[in-house]
Amino acid sequence: MPQPPSRPRRSNEPNPNAYSPAVLGFVYTPYVIRFSHRFAWQVPNSVLHRNHADNIGANHLTVGPGNGYFLSKLPPSTALRSLTLMDLNATCLKVAGDRLRGRFDVRTIEQDALKPWPVAEGGLDSVDCHMMLHTVRGSSMLDKEGLIAEAAKALRPGGRFIGATILAKGEGVVLNGLATRLMNTYNGQSNTFANANDSSEDLRALLEKHFSEVRYEVHGCTGVWVVTR
Ligand SMILES: C[S@@+](CC[C@H](N)C(=O)[O-])C[C@H]1O[C@@H](n2cnc3c(N)ncnc32)[C@H](O)[C@@H]1O
């Protein structure tokens, strides 16, 4: 993210400077979604759009909606009706909620997604978590298991958990020069990422631990998954 938070974040707490209305409204889509996804993280947005379009069911929860861009691009044929947005940052809930409320029945939950989710067990058709696990605090991917476990618990049998996250290492992970520079900055001085030790192998192992059917691929330095409970 272009703007550093006011002080280093060691635990999951809101970072309103990085997710201000101005950043979400004017910077996030061109700089993060259009530029960084393609040139740094090397993940085609078409893959992320397809992940959403093919797998989101009628009763869905999104973890970390940002400005709601990908949900706003769901095709008219989407099954989605009831949408729960969960986020640590109130501004993301407000911006994404306002953007999506005309189309879907939206409710919001303001909390750290690593903490227990206040939703009925087995009640959801789908959960998504795109491009956010790399910002969740932890010394490695293994510290982020709570979020994956909560997603599994909230889904009905046969429900799908989909997502993508930026990885630092592992088989097939390719960090180009721009990705290396940005990741060093975001994990260091700006402290907006916490993925310096996130590996593809740990992510895949966690998905396989909590879900029965795992489809997983790496694009550049981004792990992308569709898994079924
Ligand atoms: C980089 S943005 C991704 C936005 C969106 N999913 C996308 O793909 O465009 C990360 C999002 O995750 C949220 N977030 C970060 N850490 C979180 C946490 N521990 N719990 C809940 N939400 C979190 C941020 O507030 C933000 O909305």
Automatic annotation (TrEMBL):
<keyword id="KW-0808">Transferase</keyword>
<dbReference type="GO" id="GO:0032259">
    <property type="term" value="P:methylation"/>
</dbReference>
<dbReference type="InterPro" id="IPR029063">
    <property type="entry name" value="SAM-dependent_MTases_sf"/>
</dbReference>
<keyword id="KW-0489">Methyltransferase</keyword>
<feature type="domain" description="Methyltransferase type 11">
    <location>
        <begin position="61"/>
        <end position="162"/>
    </location>
</feature>
<dbReference type="InterPro" id="IPR013216">
    <property type="entry name" value="Methyltransf_11"/>
</dbReference>
<dbReference type="GO" id="GO:0008757">
    <property type="term" value="F:S-adenosylmethionine-dependent methyltransferase activity"/>
</dbReference>
<dbReference type="Pfam" id="PF08241">
    <property type="entry name" value="Methyltransf_11"/>
</dbReference>
<protein>
    <submittedName>
        <fullName>Methyltransferase family protein</fullName>
    </submittedName>
</protein>
